[in-house]
């Protein structure tokens, strides 16, 4: 059976490359992996991952711009959660793959 080859358009290429860029950073991987288990404030993320709050905020901004995380405000606190099941699935599959080796 012959497979139909479909050229990737520029927008798709950009989104795919940005997604892999997001997943290429160990800190962002750790944050996304934590958010796969629930919703956390910046302070909670920083404490659980032993990171500076400024580092967490910077990485969350990067992830939010790619729509990989979302947030809700409660008073003055922002609570972050993952916002892309597809990317989360890729991340979890890759973690499983790495642990199997």
Q: Distance between termini?
A: 33 Å
Envelope shape? globular
Computed structural class: alpha+beta
Low-confidence stretches: none
And the CATH topology? Arc Repressor Mutant, subunit A
Relevant CATH superfamily? Winged helix-like DNA-binding domain superfamily/Winged helix DNA-binding domain
CATH architecture: Orthogonal Bundle
Keywords:
59% helix, 101 residues, globular, 3-stranded antiparallel beta sheet, alpha+beta, Arc Repressor Mutant, subunit A, 5 helices
Describe the structure.
Strands 1-3-2 form a three-stranded antiparallel beta sheet. It is built from five helices and three strands; from the N terminus they run ααβααββα. The relative contact order is 0.15. β2 and β3 form a beta hairpin. The chain has helices spanning 10-22, 26-35, 42-49, 53-65, 85-100, and strands at residues 40-41, 69-74, 77-82. The N and C termini lie far apart (33 Å). The protein has a single domain (26-100), classed as Arc Repressor Mutant, subunit A (Orthogonal Bundle), CATH 1.10.10.10. It is globular and about 55 Å long.
């Amino acid at each position: 059976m012959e497979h139909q080859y479909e050229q990737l358009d520029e927008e798709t290429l950009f989104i795919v490359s940005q997604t892999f860029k997001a997943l290429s950073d160990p800190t962002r991987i750790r944050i996304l992996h934590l958010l796969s288990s629930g919703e956390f404030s910046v302070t909670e993320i920083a404490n659980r991952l032993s990171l500076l709050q400024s580092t967490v905020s910077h990485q969350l901004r990067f992830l939010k711009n790619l729509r990989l995380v979302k947030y809700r405000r409660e008073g003055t606190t922002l609570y972050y959660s993952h916002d892309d099941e597809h990317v989360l699935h890729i991340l979890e599959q890759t973690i499983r793959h790495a642990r199997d080796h």
